[in-house]
Amino acid sequence: MPLFDLRTFLAESDRMGELKVIRGADPHLEIGAIAELALDQDGPALLFDDVVGYPTGYRVASNVTSSRRRALMALGMDIGLPEEEIAPKFQDIFEQYRPVPPRVVDSGPILENVQTGADVDLLQFPVPHWHELDGGRYIGTGLGVIQRDPDTGAVNVGAYRVQLHDRNTLMIFSEPDSDGRSIMEKHWKRGEACPVAITFGPEPLLFLSACSTNGSPRHSMEEYEYTGYLAGEPVPVIRGSVTGLPISAGSEIAIEGEIPPPDRESHVEGPFAEWTGYYEYSSTPEPVIHVKALYYRTDPILYGAPPFKHDKHYVFPIQIRSAGLLRHFQQLEIPVRKIWDFRPLGATVFAIEQQQPDDVRRLMDELDTMGSTSRMLIVVDHDVDIRDPMEVLWAVGTRFDPEEARTSIVQSRWLLDPLRPIEERESRNALPYKRLIINGCRPFDRLENFPPVNRFSDQRRRETWDKWKMAEWAIPTVK
Predict the structure, then answer these.
(1) Cross-strand bridge partners of residue 21
(2) What fold is seen in the domain 6-303?
(3) Other CB atoms within 10 A of residue 460 CB
(4) How far apart are CA 184 and CA 189, in angstroms?
(5) Which of 302, 319, 323, 368 has an alpha carbon 20 to 30 Å from 76's alpha carbon atom?
(6) pTM (2 decimals)?
(7) What is the pLDDT along the chain (479 residues), one digit of tens a residue?
(8) To which H or E segment does residue 95 belong?
(9) Do strands 161-166 and 169-173 pair parallel, antiparallel, or not at all (unpaired)?
(10) Residue ranges per domain, the chain?
């Protein structure tokens, strides 16, 4: 499947019957409220036009890849692929990874409109105030922050939130342990500003790659190369005239600029409603971006991917990361078969097919050493549907021996932890992060005589479903 830019992807979504065009919405909270309600309903991708206070054609997209079919389309996979086959399919793709470097081009749609210096005006775009308690308008939610490591030369594309300050100034927040923050600090230690380019309307696949590779076991992957591999073709990029950084030529809106050391200049940023389901405690000083150049297509589309409580936007990037983690356990010969990350719910579940008496203990030992933002790491047997929270709770409630639970403590600089006091957040120091590792598996010595599960066999269920045409019995759910 070709690499779709954002507007082509939305057109394909429309062809599938999964796009809703909304006219006349207000960027102050109304766009965000519509996006949240649509997401609750597993609704379509949204394209807002005729936004209140802005010209026709200055648009905002949201909920772009929030359905399984649209996410699969962005990943270049069969949109009809059953959910249970997605992880194994992606595991195969992941293990065959070969980098496909981007292709530098002389021009592209992103250069249709260019502003530099004093002419830069970010206020022309309908940047939403996404959530009720946000500290301002956020132009950067569905984005790619592009930086080059000054030591290795590697190009990183990350997904970090960006707040609009004025016509040519932005604020950026990223976790202390993120690749983007590491690159910034390397420049700052040299006493220099960090060059940066940001696309605020990247290809959906590039955005998913930016979300999924950060924290991946394959941490050395460059997002442009990863995106090219998944798409089966190189990402066309232009070289920014200010920074020389590669910017995807099919982007909707992009900027170039620099991030001075925060002890030299910073602005108060936030609060912002994050993927954890909570707001930040308060506004805090964060690095600023001085925008030197602005590029945008005619009739530009701002890519919105604001986090919401139990946000479905993050499901696919998180499961992509899980594919790499599965490979890690395979190399250790620990028989983990599936991983499902309920990251917005604060839990990650591991399904293991016990083959040796110490398999579960070895897995728990390994989890004890690994960094994770999940507060609960749950191990269950492979017969449990780990995508279903009720199934997981059932397994834990009926197989969990409290004496086998363990508390794991790692050092973490994760700032979005809702339990972290504001004074600790401002310090940015690594502090103990406590997690609970739960064994929800049947005892190995009782696998053969453990009470059988009260459920018809899969074969009988399939035969009954087909014979009585039960797919036609579905009742639409309305919230």
Answers:
(1) 47
(2) Pnp Oxidase; Chain A (2.30.110)
(3) 10
(4) 9
(5) 302
(6) 0.87
(7) 579 999 999 999 999 999 999 999 999 999 999 999 998 888 999 999 999 999 999 999 999 999 889 988 998 888 888 877 777 787 788 778 899 999 999 999 999 999 999 999 999 999 999 999 999 999 999 999 999 999 999 999 999 999 999 999 999 999 998 999 999 999 999 999 999 999 999 999 999 999 876 544 444 689 999 999 999 999 999 999 999 999 999 999 999 999 999 999 999 999 999 888 888 767 889 999 999 999 999 999 999 999 988 655 445 555 666 777 888 898 899 999 999 887 666 789 999 999 999 999 999 999 998 877 788 999 999 999 998 889 999 999 999 999 888 988 888 887 888 888 877 776 777 888 889 999 999 999 999 999 999 988 989 999 998 998 888 886 655 44
(8) helix 83-95
(9) antiparallel
(10) 6-303, 332-447
Q: What does the alpha-carbon distance between residue 315 and residue 319 come to, in Å, rounded to a whole number?
A: 6
Token couple for 339: 């991983």
Which pair of tokens denotes residue 338?
């599936």
- Gap between the Cα atoms of 437 and 404, Å rounded: 9
The verdict on whether omega for the bond into residue 271 sits within 30 degrees of 0, i.e. cis, is yes
Burial (Cβ within 10 Å: 0-12, 13-18, ≥19) of residue 420: middle
> What residue type is 402 in one-letter code?
P
Please give the Cα distance from 113 to 255 (Å, whole number).
12
Q: How far is CA 93 from CA 79, 96, 219, 226, in A?
A: 16, 5, 17, 11
Contact 329, 148 (CB under 8 A): no
Cα separations (Å) of 280 from 206, 269, 289?
27, 10, 21
CA Rg value for the chain: 23
Place of tokens 């993927």: 275
Cα gap 199→256, rounded to integer Å: 9
Q: Half-sphere exposure of 348 toward its Cβ, with a 13 Å CA cutoff? A: 24
- The DSSP code sequence of 407-476 is EEEEEE--TT-TTS-HHHHHHT--EEEEEEEEEESPPGGGTTTSPPPSS--HHHHHHHHHHTTGGGG---
